[in-house]
Design a protein that fits this description.
The chain is mainly α and 149 residues long. The chain has two domains: 59 residues; 71 residues, no CATH class. 42% of the residues lie in helices and 8% in strands. The chain has seven helices and two strands, in the order H-H-H-H-H-E-E-H-H.
Length: 149
C-alpha cells in the first residue's frame, strides 16, 4: 500500500477509523455502506449503535499504514512470504482492495496456495456468499488432508 496509488485511494475509508477518538461520532452509515446483505448490514449497524467501537478501530490505528505513504520497501521481504499452504477467498465486489495485489501473488508463497474469486461478494464474503465460502474451505481442507496422507 505504501507505493500503490490505487490502493491508497481505495484505503481512504480507513482514515476516519485511524483518526477516531473515543466519543467521536461513529458514522455508522459510512461503516456499513458496502455490506451487501441488508439484514447483515442492519445487524452490524445495530451492534455499532449499542457498542463501544474504540477497540475495534484501534486495529486501524495500530496496524494499518496511514498517510503519508511512500515508506521504503523492507530490505528483507522474506518476512512477508507465507511458509504454509494458504487459501485465499476474494470477493470480486470488494471495494477496499486493488486487483494489483494479485499481479504477482505466486511470489509470496513457498507452499501451495489456492486463490478463489467469489462473484457477487464483497469484503464480507462470508456473509455475502456463505455457502460458497464454506464449500471452498471444506474443499481446501480436504485437499490439505489428502496431501498429508
Amino acid at each position: 500500500m505504501t507505493n500503490d496509488p490505487e490502493q491508497q485511494r481505495l484505503s481512504e475509508y480507513t482514515i476516519p477509523y485511524i483518526n477516531y477518538q473515543e466519543g467521536d461520532d461513529k458514522n455508522i452509515d459510512y461503516v456499513v455502506r458496502f455490506i451487501c446483505n441488508p439484514e447483515w448490514r442492519e445487524r452490524i449497524a445495530e451492534y455499532l449503535r449499542t457498542s463501544p467501537v474504540h477497540g475495534m478501530l484501534s486495529y486501524y490505528k495500530m496496524g494499518y499504514p496511514a498517510p503519508p505513504y511512500g515508506a521504503p520497501a523492507p530490505e528483507d521481504p522474506s518476512a512477508f512470504i507465507y511458509q504454509v499452504p494458504t487459501l485465499i477467498l476474494w470477493g470480486l465486489e470488494d471495494p477496499y482492495f486493488s486487483l494489483e495485489h494479485l499481479s504477482d501473488l505466486w511470489n509470496w508463497f513457498t507452499k501451495s496456495y489456492r486463490f478463489v474469486t467469489v462473484p457477487g461478494a464483497g469484503h464480507w464474503l462470508h456473509q455475502d456468499a456463505p455457502q460458497k465460502v464454506n464449500r471452498e474451505i471444506r474443499s481446501w481442507l480436504q485437499t490439505q488432508e489428502q496431501e498429508r496422507t
